[in-house]
Amino acid sequence: MSGPLLEDVLPPWIHIRASSPQAISFRWLLDELVHEGAAELPGASLASAQLAQLLFIQILRAHLKTSAHLSPVWLRVLGDADLAPALHLMHSDPGRSWHLEELAKAAAMSRTAFAVRFKSVAGMPPLAYLLNWRMRLAERSLREGKTSIATLAQSLGYTSEGAFSNAFKRLKGTAPKRYREISRTGLGYTTPQTLEIA
Looking at the domain that runs over 128-185, which CATH code has it been given? Predict the structure, then answer.
């Protein structure tokens, strides 16, 4: 899973009810965070950072478990324990030319069963998902990075800048260079949503 991309896909609010089973662990983690912040003990900053990470993971898990309509596709797939290993492969090496057989093997399924299951959960075939994931990574890099388009294309598995540009334009409606220019000037750029607990 690509952590920095979470801010782009999580909803502006994640509401976990105080009466939910998950709220017990949240309370304990929050109490510990307050305690670590108030106490001047050795390692308090490290302990606070670890507790905050654990709290975030617990919130994300609760969201995956309780949300009936997870809009980001990859969150739905990540929430499926059988498909998660294949998703991890695609996320950890998006530039690789993945084959359906390899992904199905990671999920311990036949090629056909994997393809059907993935499409039913994600709403698209696995390789279409991979293409969309690459484009999301490309968007982020074009907005925030200084990597050349040719280097970005290669890192995402494209044999040429032209092939990448064509794929990007087909899915996003504009060429990568133009997308970078627009996002750098602030036109059409959407500020990433923040995570809050209601």
Answer: 1.10.10.60
